[in-house]
């Protein structure tokens, strides 16, 4: 096992970390497949409003590759298809039947799996709705089934304490995880399994299979960061990656022949009593996850991580890939004579605030504490970037339409962690700028191809 130590990053000093306690939250009358959060997918609808569907029925496919199917996370009736600006499909909502029916697929035994060709296995995963769980660097797009990656990276655990603990989602699922790894190993000669920190007692079955032990602060466990620090050839830039929980999903789907919709989510409302792991289902409505809690209008829901996720509303649904839900305060946090205070309780990386020198966990809110100002060349953004990009210069190149220069600075290595924006004292949305540029560059490349 190789130890990869990531030196740059940020230690999450945010209060309200989910405990390893689990609570079951399945009750919901509707679920939805969130479409507009799927990267670079052009949906070709296969259902219309009013249609009956089972768990695992195809709802749409990708126009660029119609073999890649996106399946229903619930059984019932398609009650609404919501469109956003320019008729972009946002979500397909399913009103659930009391007893949900389930599509079934052929199940695999270990022997059958080992004798299935790579192409048939890939085709099987596309039909079973599992393919979108496998992503490809550097754009984080859904993996190109026609490509052959030099390695597939599996992440177990995260340096972000608001993501699910691997010990929690692996417990009792060891058999499916192992089966999922076996299936993935049919698609690449090299499977890299990364564990964050030390493997705890009770997970000895991983001792043989974990290839990389990751240490460091957020976002040390991001596959793009690990790859950046370990790659030896340019071919590795297009490696595939997948989260440990999704490997379990693949194993379960292949072994049982049913489309798995169960999901462990790390939930935090900032309080120690409510922040925990929730055993729920994909596509659940967010407010159903917080049933029984009093969540006022002065709160903001964030899905996917405080620094890299999206702000959303409580009547939205859980995306296919998301596993972290946070509810943070949006109340104005202005303090009387705030500029005279030492900032003991203000979350920041700036050494001008005393909180930097304390290890206490602090509450988080959406207050920016100021307006956007010109760059002061402080270098904070570069000092935290885990893949050694100079975010300020890369963004300046992009604003001047110098894409080649931005690429030379390492635009494609960016892992979209959001740290550079967080630390910037001038409140410049560097990460957003880099994310948009990467998206446009990917679109351009695909138009040319
Ligand atoms: S440029 Fe910013 S968003 Fe990109 S990896 Fe570096 S710190 Fe993260
Ligand atoms: S952190 Fe902000 S102000 Fe400082 S160099 Fe980077 S962009 Fe400029």
Keywords for this entry:
3 domains, globular, 20 strands, alpha/beta, OB fold (Dihydrolipoamide Acetyltransferase, E2P), 449 residues, 7-stranded mixed beta sheet, 6-stranded mixed beta sheet
Low-pLDDT ranges? none
Largest beta-sheet characterization: 7 strands, mixed
**Strand fraction:** 15-25%
* Sheet with most strands: strand arrangement: 1-14-13-12-15-10-11
Label the structural class: alpha/beta
Total of domains: 3
Multimerization state: single chain
Count of helical stretches: 12
Q: Report the mean per-residue pLDDT as an integer.
A: 91
Bound molecules: iron/sulfur cluster
- Helicity level: 10-25%
End-to-end C-alpha gap? 39 Å
Rounded to an integer in angstroms, the radius of gyration calculated over CA atoms is 22 Å
Topology, number of strands: 20
List the helices and strands and how they pair.
Elements (H helix, E strand, L loop, with lengths): L1 E5 L15 E3 L5 E5 L8 E3 L6 E2 L4 E5 L2 E7 L4 E8 L5 E8 L13 H6 L2 H10 L7 E2 L4 E2 L9 E5 L9 H5 L3 H11 L6 E6 L15 E5 L6 H8 L9 E4 H13 L5 E7 L7 E6 L4 H4 L9 E5 L6 E3 L11 E6 L50 H5 L6 H9 L3 H7 L9 H5 L6 H19 L1
Parallel strand pairs: 1-14, 2-17, 12-13, 12-15, 13-14, 16-20
Antiparallel strand pairs: 3-9, 4-6, 5-8, 6-7, 8-9, 10-11, 10-15, 16-17, 18-19, 18-20
Bound molecules: iron/sulfur cluster (2 copies).
Quickly describe the structure:
It contains 12 helices and 20 strands. It has 449 residues and is an alpha/beta fold.
What can you see in these coordinates?
There is one protein chain. By secondary structure, this protein is α/β, with parallel strands linked by helices. The chain has 3 domains: 1-22 and 103-330, no CATH class; 30-96, OB fold (Dihydrolipoamide Acetyltransferase, E2P) (Beta Barrel); 368-448, no CATH class. 23% of the residues lie in helices and 22% in strands. It contains 12 helices and 20 strands. The chain has a 7-stranded mixed β-sheet with strand order 1-14-13-12-15-10-11. The longest helix has 19 residues, at 430-448. It is globular and about 60 Å long. The mean pLDDT is 91. The site of one iron/sulfur cluster has 16 residues, from helix 11 and helix 12.
